[in-house]
Amino acid sequence: MACAAVMIPGLLRGSVGAVCTQAASLGLTPSALRHLTLTSIMKSKRKTDHLERTADVIRREFVFWLQVVSAAKVCGAAYESPSVKRLRLLVADKDFSFKAGQWVDFFIPGVSVVGGFSICSSPRLLEQERMIELAVKYANHPPALWIHNQCTLDSEVAVRVGGEFFFDPQPADASRNLVLIAGGVGINPLLSILRHSADLHRARADKGSGYEIGTIKLFYSAKTTSELLFKKNILDLVNEFPEKIACSLHVTKQTTQISAELKPYITEGRITEKEIRDHISKETLFYICGPPPMTDFFSKQLENSHVPKEHICFEKWW
């Protein structure tokens, strides 16, 4: 859900390009899109609103009147868990792009409050199919309510990319190991990073060149296995790249039997400091996204273990 990025390694910071919006193919004219965006911004007054929390965070800048806002259409929807709905959006703007880990401002016609949701798909899906995916937990916040109660196939919305929490290595960059630490729906941006890393590995295997990823370890915690999102997607990547990708799935309040398929990957209990400390090295970057207490705990522990601050990236969501 809505996030405020706090830290990013300087070596991975990319430039932000300026492009024009192409909304006509989804029926939203530039003037209608501008009205929707400005109206949403002006009416968004609550101090806990996504726009206020992220006011200082980088977004893609627009050349003329505002910032890049692209029309999008809902082309798929399914429940990832009893409380989390996954959306697939077709984005009209052919120049729309994002870095793995970033989020979007989410503008809904008729809803004055602007949503903020992390993208959980890989940039490759956008490049190939003009699609992005979001996974939104049910809440009383108007954008989340709309997604769960009113959103239908072909619903038209608008999106704008933002965020300083991302993994965007260039082909000549040094290989890095990644440790991804997720809690609850904090898996969303980390799944995007995981998927992007897998795409980079496939591209290098196919072409014999490009960025070389190191090892990736995902630590992911939820209350129960039913609340662990994207289980099949994660395990498919682990099985496809066993030499590169591993995961440790944690459940803290499991009361039912764990399936045989999941059991080898499940640990009952919270992610521990020792598990994370065992993966510290000078080649490792840490990405953390989860409830604020969890994020604060692990970022502090990593600092206390002398991990350079520029190797610790975290995003808080509420």
Q: Would you write up a description of this structure?
A:
- With 318 residues, the protein is α/β, with parallel strands linked by helices.
- Helices cover 26% and strands 28% of the residues.
- The chain contains eight helices and 13 strands.
- The strands form two sheets. Strands 1-13-12-8-9-10-11 form a seven-stranded mixed sheet, with helices on both faces. The protein has a six-stranded antiparallel sheet with strand order 5-4-7-2-3-6.
- Helix 5 links the parallel strand 8 and strand 9.
- The termini are close together.
Give the secondary structure arrangement, pairings included.
Layout: E1 3-7, H1 30-43, H2 50-53, E2 70-81, E3 84-91, E4 103-108, E5 111-118, H3 123-129, E6 131-137, H4 142-149, E7 156-162, E8 177-183, H5 187-207, E9 216-222, H6 231-240, E10 245-251, E11 266-268, H7 273-277, E12 284-290, H8 292-304, E13 312-317
Parallel strand pairs: 8-9, 8-12, 9-10, 10-11, 12-13
Antiparallel strand pairs: 1-13, 2-3, 2-7, 3-6, 4-5, 4-7
Characterize this entry briefly.
The chain is of the alpha/beta class and 318 residues long. It has 8 helices and 13 strands.
Oligomer: single chain
Strand order of the largest sheet: 1-13-12-8-9-10-11
The helicity comes to 25-40%
Distance between the termini: 7 Å
Distinctive features:
single chain, 318 residues, alpha/beta, 8 helices, 28% strand, disordered N terminus
